[in-house]
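User: Let's play a game. I give you a shape written as tokens, and you guess the letters that built it. Ready? Here's round one.
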């Protein structure tokens, strides 16, 4: 378990003005073909259920509350024991393994990160640092070992967090093109283990990555008026799971129901409760 729980701070992208300034770079990057992973034909992964009627739970702190009525559980891959995953699956739930692409000093694999890949701290997140996503030769073995952990525990899918590093002050001159290459490697790592894979945020690249990823996990798209950009997933028959922190349930559902997204309202700490579902 994390000996120093995360502070109550949302995982947010950079300021809207900064992100809009990067849109042009994102558009240029869509032509990326070189340096992509040799992604194998997607295996018969078990994809998650979709539709506004599907309920989900997002819990990253505390003992997992299996009594929550949800079709999908997105929970921490390191801290959740295999027995909990198995119990959720016996009850019919779809299980998503939360992993971060960042360096986390409380994780058991922290010693595997070479100093050369470590960047600035994530704002508001003690002990967590951005990594140089261009250095895939160093990072992919670490990511693969984390994915192996999810596979061994019996999860159905992986949700990789912090996959929009190029929009943040990481300490590295990252580009949208770097991010697309990196994120496609993440998808290939999951698919290579028979696991589905979800895209976390990375709004500006959602349309480009929707064909590669199996679902999306989105924070605060109602608050930022960005939900429509994830229709790229639903157009491909892929689910979108939304969590809002500063909106009421009525405000949230009015937007997400029309788009066919699954949505919940929670507090920033992402404990089991409080939780409201559309």
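Assistant: Ready! My guess for every position:
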């Amino acid at each position: 378990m994390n000996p120093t729980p995360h502070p109550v701070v949302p995982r947010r992208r950079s300021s809207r003005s900064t992100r809009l300034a990067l849109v042009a770079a994102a558009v240029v990057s869509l032509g990326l073909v070189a340096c992509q992973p040799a992604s194998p034909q997607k295996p018969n992964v078990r994809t998650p259920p979709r539709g506004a009627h599907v309920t989900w739970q997002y819990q990253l702190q505390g003992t997992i509350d299996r009594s929550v009525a949800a079709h999908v559980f997105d929970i921490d891959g390191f801290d959740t024991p295999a027995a909990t995953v198995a119990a959720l699956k016996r009850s019919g739930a779809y299980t998503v393994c939360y992993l971060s692409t960042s360096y986390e000093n409380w994780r058991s694999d922290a010693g595997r990160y070479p100093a050369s890949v470590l960047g600035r701290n994530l704002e508001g997140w003690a002990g967590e640092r951005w990594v140089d996503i261009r250095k895939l030769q160093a990072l992919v073995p670490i990511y693969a070992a984390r994915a192996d952990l999810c596979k061994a525990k019996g999860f159905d899918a992986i949700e990789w967090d912090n996959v929009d590093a190029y929009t943040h002050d990481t300490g590295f001159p990252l580009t949208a093109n770097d991010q697309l290459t990196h994120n496609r490697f993440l998808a290939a790592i999951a698919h290579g283990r028979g696991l589905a894979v979800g895209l976390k945020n990375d709004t500006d690249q959602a349309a480009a990555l929707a064909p590669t990823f199996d679902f999306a996990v989105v924070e605060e798209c109602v608050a930022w008026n960005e939900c429509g950009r994830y229709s790229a997933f639903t157009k491909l028959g892929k689910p979108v799971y939304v969590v809002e922190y500063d909106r009421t349930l009525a405000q949230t559902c009015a937007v997400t129901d029309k788009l066919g997204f699954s949505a919940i309202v929670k507090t920033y700490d992402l404990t089991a409760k409080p939780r409201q579902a559309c």
